[in-house]
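User: Show me a protein chain along with its predicted structure.
Assistant: Here is one chain, sequence first, then structure tokens.
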Amino acid sequence: MAYKGTRGTVHDFSGFNDHADAETLRKAMKGLGTDEQSIMKLLATRSNDQRQKIAAAYKTLFGRDLVSDLKSELSGTFEKLVVAMTIPSELYDASELRSAIKGAGTSENVLIEILASRTCSEINHIKRIYKKEYETEIGRAH
């Protein structure tokens, strides 16, 4: 379920072709070195829904997981950014909420940023994803 509404500045790329984009990403990661510029140029100009379709096409075409390949080719904050761009929004939100409340201390800024900018419907969906992923209610993460 993709978020609906007018948030964000990245919109569907006209002329989108999931197979061609998957091939571009594979080419950027195959062989010696990684073409980080090509990866960012492509992912930054596709909507989250389109990025999910690219990941599915990547799996179909190459029998490989796009996120796993990106993690093995990239590092540091660039890796974190690119991985965040390639997972579904609600799954990313659930992961960030877990990190914000797990362990000692709480990252209130993350909680506020996510919870204050989502609709009730989106928050309920994030809660369902959280429970499915972590087998616990969001408030019981400690």
